[in-house]
Amino acid sequence: MNASQALAFIELHGVVLVSARGTVPTLTEAIAGAPIKGSWWGHPEGKHIFTVLGEVQEHDDILVCRLLAGKLTLVHRRLWPAVAVLAQARALPAAAAARVRQVHTAGGKHVNEETPFPQWLPPDAATAAAALDPDRARAALGL
Questions:
Q1: Under 8 Å between Cβ of 11 and 76
Q2: Banded model confidence at residue 92, pLDDT cuts 50, 70, 90
Q3: 6 with 54: CB under 8 angstroms?
Q4: What is the pLDDT of residues 58-70, one digit of tens each?
Q5: What's the rounded Cα separation, in Å, for the pair 80 and 73?
């Protein structure tokens, strides 16, 4: 699976986990084409998975957050209004609705930088959220 296919996978499902297992699909396993035992870093496709994840996480239509059980979750732009309505209603912990970006430091480390909700929310998603029922938002996100 390449980055374009991974983006289509996320768009299809709306919400996917990066590497954890849960009630929604896991992107690393979709990229690998099979379940992964242990860490995906040690998988024979680990470098490819890393490359695809990097491209997907930087895409403008993907929100990286900790929506599901505090695990890195990818949410397609079409569901951002659902995240917004639940965050505004305080039906989500603040950390679950914060945008997470991985930043590469000069020393070669990767650190997570978080942008709190609603600072990352574009105006069109905020407008759509105003018309969305919280119960429908929960259902759309699988919560």
A1: yes
A2: very high
A3: no
A4: 999 999 999 999 9
A5: 12
Burial environment of residue 44 by CB neighbours within 10 A (0 to 12, 13 to 18, 19 or more): exposed
Between vectors from CA 60 to CA 105 and to CA 84, what angle results, nearest 5°?
105
CA-closest candidate to residue 24, choices 74, 85, 60, 94: 74
What CA dihedral angle connects 105, 100, 18 and 58, to 10 degrees? -70
Rg (CA), the chain: 15
d(CA 13, CA 76): 8
Burial class (CB in 10 A: 0-12, 13-18, 19+), 89: exposed
Q: Measure the CA–CA gap between 138 and 53, rounded to whole angstroms.
A: 26
Give the pTM: 0.94
The pair of three-digit structure tokens given for residue 44, joined into one six-digit string: 């024979």
Q: Residue 16: helix, strand or coil by DSSP? A: strand
Each domain of the chain, given as residue ranges in start order, spans 3-141
Q: Say whether 76 sits in a helix, a strand or coil.
A: strand
